[in-house]
Design goal:
The protein has 389 residues and is mainly alpha-helical. The protein is built from 13 helices and three strands. The protein has helices at 34-56, 64-86, 88-98, 102-124, 178-214, 216-231, 234-244, 249-259, 262-276, 279-286, 291-327, 338-345, 354-381, and strands spanning 143-145, 156-157, 160-162. The chain has a three-stranded antiparallel β-sheet, with no helix packed on it. The longest helix is centred in the middle third of the chain and has 37 residues, at 178-214.
Amino acid sequence: MAADTPSGSTTAAGSTDRFEDVDWDDLGGLGLPLRTGLLVAVSAIYALVVTTDVFLTEGSVLSGTDWLFVLTLLVGAFFVAWPLAENRRLTAYYWRRFKKNRAAVVSAIYLLVVFTVGTVGPWLIAKPELNVIAAYQPPVFVSVDSSVPSACAGAVADGMCHGTWKYPLGTTSEGKGIAKLVVFGMRVSMQVGLITMLIVISIGTVVGTSAAYFGDLVDEVLMRYVDIQQTFPTFFLFLIVTYLFKPSLFLLITIFGFLGWGGIARLVRSEALQRREEEYIRAAENAGASDGWIIRKHLMPNVSNTVITAATLLIPSFILFEATFAFLGLTDPATPSWGQVIASGRGDLDSAWWIATIPGVFLFCTVLAFNFVGDALRDALDPRSEGDA
């Protein structure tokens, strides 16, 4: 009987291939699937544009961090948004479980706004510039004594300095608009959180699944390396590198990305070890499937729920790392970030509280929102938790 299955695929001559002789990497047919073909095309275009911008253009259009952010968005589009759009029934099922947590839904909406404003905003507004004439301008609907602080760009009435819509969130001691600083800080936070998360998740997943699948010597070598890496003080390495080179967001992302995946590798390995003993893995092995095919098609998809949850909970940690380093003055001063603005206003809390408070509130809400979303995703994606189908 001719059947369009691996166990009974029929050739043009009418002969039937043996099950163990099936080319597992060629099951998709003669042509590439639409997503794979489009991914290859987009990847080639991306590589060409980046190469042209970095090596052939005098004065790069985008920084290294911006190009990494574009790559992160492309990965998210092809490996998160596309599968969700393709499998609408499963997406609807997960959404029903997710929306039971109303705090997570509100948090997701807030994060979507922050992501959109932080991504698009810096292209539409000018970078905040020094303007000492407008120093210490209070936010709209806020009034302060016009003599404390001394400068006031808004209306003065009855000895009070009133806020103006020109600077809706007020200004810093240098006269920089806090609204603009907050928008640029959104971009920095999203870049640090998402790019670093992508690097950590990618390396950690590959190492964890490989260690679990191959076991023995491979597992021992990989996990001992993870032990060594996790004992290495990444913070001190960052200090040394920033001392030797000019501090930049790119350095922070790459150092913490390429040295921070040990915990994810262990988590993925633990989950993959359980999947390794499942019958479908053994069936694929007995059928002659290659190791790479089994890891790509079986192990990685079946640990993806754990990876997605861990990724969501990792992002706020990286955002806090960047804010801490910026607060301590260990990042590029030309790159506006929330931590940097908080540090600039810590000495004026008694007279100009808005300088440090407003970016601090955004930082707090963003970290809290990611935590809420991460908890809700864990509950929605965990098949062992109760939920309505």
